[in-house]
Structure formats: C-alpha cells, structure tokens
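QA checklist item 7 of 12: single-chain prediction sanity check.
[x] sequence parsed
[x] length recorded as 207
[x] structure emitted
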Amino acid sequence: ENVFEQRHTASKDNAASVLATIALLVAESDRADLSCLCDGLASMNERWSPLAHWAAGRLAELTDQPQSALERYREVVELHADMQEAGATPLPGAERLLEDVLLRIVHLQLARGDGEQALQGLSILTGLSPAYAPRLASLLGMLGQYDEAISLLQRTVGAGHGDWRTAMQMGELYTAAGAEDAAGIARELAQKMRSDETTMAWQQMAA
C-alpha cells in the first residue's frame, strides 16, 4: 500500500470519509486540493477505482469539462456493473455512489438538452428507488411521452409508493394529454389520498 492508501484504510468508513472530502472540496470549488486528491485516489488499488473516477468527474465539472465528466461517470457505472457481475460489493461507505453518479449524468445531459439520454439515467435510478419515478415521469411528459409517464405513475401508486402529489402529477399529465375526464379522476384520487394522510397523521399524534 502507498502512503495515501494507508491513510485512508484505517477505518471501515474510509470511503464515506473520502466522499465527504470530495463533496466539501467541490462545494468550496477547491480545484487544487481536489486535483491532489484525484492523484492520490488514482494511485490506489482497483477497489478504489469508482471513487477515483468520481473525484475526477467532479473535478472535470469544476473546470468546465462536462464531456470529460460524463466519461468519468460512465466509467463508474461500468465498474459497478462489473462488480455486480463478479458478486463483489462496493467499499463500505460507498454504497450510494452509483446513485450519485447517475444523478450527475442526468444533470449534465439535461444541461446540454439531451433529454433522451437523461431518460436512461432516470430509468436506472427509478429501478434503484421508486422515489425517482415522479422525476422520470416529468421528463417523459416534457418529451411528450404522456402515456409512458402516466403508466409509470400508475404503477408507482399501485405498488404502494408515492403519495397524493404523485396522483396530482398524474392529473396534470392527463390534462397535458387532453384527457380531462381522467385528469378529474386523478385529482379526486389525490384529494382522497391527501385527506387519508392527514387523518392518519392526526391519529398518530393522538396515539
């Protein structure tokens, strides 16, 4: 192990610590220290490769190189896929890295107006967590794919995920698609779900 690696393998939460450091340096736009951190991560063993690419991608964004950042983030996605195929697991503390990487990919693709590519990232995120379904549905709606957006939200609500806001969003999509009767039904569902949530909250407070 090199000195950098020894320093960051002292505790089982080392990856979380490094990720927190990367986030801090990005927030402070500290390109110099982030560059040094990138060099250190690049010198470590292959288990650290996803973090090395993540750090390099964040640095690329800070230096206005979005294409380079995208390439780095896609490397993380590919490494994660290889890891899953091999039955390996991420470093402790880096379990959410794939999610963070996909969010950056979606952000960069939307920033350059590439909605179709952003759909792929949001689709993967929705597979990781249904919490991303409303965001994916919004993008589908922006692209005029109302049937797909509505179907996605219907599945989300049917699976017990989402809340009254999801149903309200469904109503907005029906309206955009010109289906006012269905929009009215969705809005009624949203009102009922909101009322039920309020009642449940009061019951819990009174318990």
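[x] summary fact logged: The two ends are 56 Å apart (CA to CA).
[ ] second reviewer sign-off
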